[in-house]
Each structure stands twice: as structure tokens, then as C-alpha cells.
Specification:
The protein has 263 residues and is of the alpha+beta class. The protein has helices at 2-11, 13-33, 58-73, 103-117, 153-168, 193-199, 203-212, 240-248, 251-254, and strands at 46-52, 79-87, 90-97, 126-129, 187-191, 217-224, 227-233, 258-262. A hairpin with a 2-residue loop joins strand 6 (217-224) and strand 7.
Length: 263
């Protein structure tokens, strides 16, 4: 058998060369198209629904949040199973579909059912779809560092959330970029309870005053010749100093002392 193959190869040299070139071309094409994973993702087709219900115990979450969502998911096309996990103030529902179902089609089906499920949920419950990736989808981690002392942990986290993350999400094949670490930029109002009690001011009044004094107000426009000037009231706070100034203009904030701590 081997002698016959060798004799045929010697007599049909051009045919053997053409066959070799064809196999090489198919190999190069397959190399470019076949996905290669160090850890192949063997997860089935599933969609996760995450719901937060602050202050509820696990039985309450199961009864008021998890169960209504599971009922809405029943009867989906090519559905295999629905499983859930309820914890304190949190539940995770996993909707599993048959193999071969498109991931985005499955998420569309679940998203449509969630619109009906939200009508039966208590107030304050937030429901959203989990990321399309799985635990095996995290393939790369990076760290932002800077030798400039002005870029502290807060500034680096701001750069990550508003510059680096949006750019990386435009890369083909990247589903999401998760941020962890650093300090999120925020302003905290530390209330002194004794001041509130002495001036008979409630926390609800404080929240309402801060909300009204931290927003932009749109107005009309002024016509001047062939041009128009838009009138706006700028009250959105960008620093702790401007927040302190805007708050002092409210009669509620003027009646008690508070400390502004930039974080």
C-alpha cells in the first residue's frame, strides 16, 4: 500500500504539489476563522436576571420578587429550565435555553417578559439583565498607574470609568469591561442630628433641599436681531465648595450646620 502511494506520488508530482498547496490554503483559512480559547466556555445558553430589593428577607424576596419573575418566564420558546437563588435584598434568576438558541434572541425574549413582570413587583425593586458573558469570559486584567501625584485613586477611577472603559467596549469581541478598585468620586453631606432636632428639620427636608439646589433649570430664549440667546439657570454642583454655596441659599440648609466632606 505504501509502495503504491509512493509510486503514484513520484509519477504525479504536479498533482501532489497542487494538493499540498490546497491543503495549506484550507489550513490558513481555518486558522483565521476558528476561535481558539485557552479555557473553552462550555456554559449552556442562559440569561441571568438580577433583582435588588433592599430591606427584604430571603422569604420575602422569594415570595414577592423571585416567584413573579419565574412565573413570567414560563412558556418561553425552547426553554429548558428556570432556576433561582434568593438572598437578603437580592435574587438571581437563571433562564436556560436549548443549545443552538442565539444569545441575543434569548435576551430579547427574557427582556420582553420582564416588562410584564415589573408590573407585579413591589416599589423600589430594581430588575436588570445580567451581562452576556460568563465567569470564563474574563480574559484580561489591567491596572491604571500614574507617576504624577495629582492622579490619586479617585482620579484614576474616574479616568477608568469615563475614558478607558468606553473605548475598550468598542473593541470587537469585548462584551463588557468591569471596574473594581480605586475610589469613586462623590460628595457626602454629614448631618449633625442634634442640629436637626433643635431646629425641627427632618431628613426628608434635607434631601429635598439638596435635590432642588443641585440641578440646572431651563428657561426660554431671548431674540436679539437674527440671533437667539438661550436662558438657563446653572445650579449643578461640580465641587464641594459650589455644593456648600448652593445649599446655603436654601432656608432649610441655613437652619442647621453640616460638614461637607469630599470623597
Amino acid at each position: 500500500m505504501i509502495n503504491a502511494i509512493l509510486n503514484f506520488s513520484v509519477r504525479q508530482r504536479m498533482l501532489v504539489i497542487l494538493g499540498t498547496l490546497a491543503l495549506t490554503g484550507f489550513g490558513v483559512l481555518a486558522l483565521k476563522q476558528i476561535p481558539i480559547d485557552a479555557f473553552p466556555d462550555v456554559t449552556n445558553v442562559q440569561v441571568q436576571v438580577l433583582a435588588t430589593a433592599g430591606g427584604m428577607s430571603p422569604p420575602e424576596v422569594e415570595k414577592l420578587v423571585t416567584r413573579p419573575i419565574e412565573i413570567q418566564m414560563a412558556g418561553l420558546p425552547r426553554l429548558e429550565q428556570v432556576r433561582s437563588m434568593s438572598k437578603i435584598g437580592l435574587c438571581a434568576i437563571t433562564v436556560v435555553f436549548e443549545d443552538g438558541v442565539n444569545d441575543y434572541f434569548a435576551r430579547q425574549l427574557v427582556g420582553e417578559r420582564l416588562q410584564s413582570a415589573r408590573e407585579n413587583l413591589p416599589d423600589g425593586v430594581e430588575v436588570r439583565l445580567g451581562p452576556i458573558t460568563t465567569g470564563l469570559g474574563e480574559v484580561f486584567q489591567y491596572t491604571l498607574v500614574s507617576s504624577d501625584p495629582k492622579y490619586d485613586a479617585t482620579e484614576l477611577r474616574t479616568i477608568q470609568d469615563y475614558i478607558v472603559r468606553p473605548i475598550l467596549r468598542t473593541v470587537p469581541g469585548v462584551t463588557d469591561v468591569n471596574s473594581f478598585g480605586g475610589l469613586t468620586k462623590q460628595f457626602q453631606v454629614i448631618i449633625k442630628p442634634d442640629r436637626l432636632t433643635s431646629y425641627h428639620v427632618t431628613l426628608a427636608q434635607v434631601f429635598e433641599a439638596l435635590k432642588k439646589n443641585n440641578s440646572n433649570a431651563s428657561g426660554n430664549f431671548i431674540e436679539h436681531g437674527s440671533e437667539q440667546y438661550v436662558v438657563r439657570g446653572l445650579g449643578l454642583s461640580k465641587t464641594s465648595a459650589t455644593l456648600r454655596i448652593s445649599s446655603s441659599q436654601s432656608w432649610i440648609i441655613r437652619r442647621f450646620m453640616c460638614e461637607m466632606l469630599p470623597m
